[in-house]
Amino acid sequence: MVRIVVIAAGAIIALAGLVYLIKLMILRFGGVRVLAEVVSAREIKPGYYVHKLRFEHNGKIVEKDDSTGYSQPFSVGEKLEIICSKSDSEKFEYVGALKKNMIIAAVMIIMAILIVLRFMFWVDDDDLM
């Protein structure tokens, strides 16, 4: 029974990671690279900074807060490269953070698949007692 629970949990984690990775890949390969300027940085809780960015999206100037949250603020006036959804200016991510999140999601999927395979083929119910 424990084997089945671990296999199911691993499969669910792998599936969730895959969905997240697909969303990131859609943004990465279907989005538009834009240079954004940091307009302001505010500390919303100790050690957690949110930045207001200004960038051009579909011919309009947009000012939006990022959702990443960094432990160190960016300098006002600093220019950062983001990838923005073609249709929705609300959906954007820093290029570096997007790459990092894609790698983390891929590693999570691989680890979950390895756990599923291990418990499917190399662990018996007798091994868990």
Key features?
elongated, 129 residues, alpha+beta, 30% strand
Describe the structure.
The relative contact order is 0.21. The mean pLDDT is 93. Helix content is 43%, strand content 30%. It has a five-stranded antiparallel β-sheet. With 129 residues, the chain is α+β, with helices and mostly antiparallel strands.
- The neighbouring-strand order within the major sheet is 3-2-1-4-5
List how many beta strands DSSP finds. 5
The chain-level structural class is: alpha+beta
Shape: elongated
Low-confidence stretches: none
Provide the succession of SSEs.
Answer: HEEEEEH
Count of individual helical segments: 2
Instruction: Supply Rg.
Output: 20 Å
Largest sheet properties: 5 strands, antiparallel
Average pLDDT level: 93
β-strand percent reads 25-35%
What topology does this entry show?
Blueprint: H1 2-30, E1 32-45, E2 48-57, E3 60-65, E4 79-84, E5 92-94, H2 95-121
Helix pairs in contact: 1-2
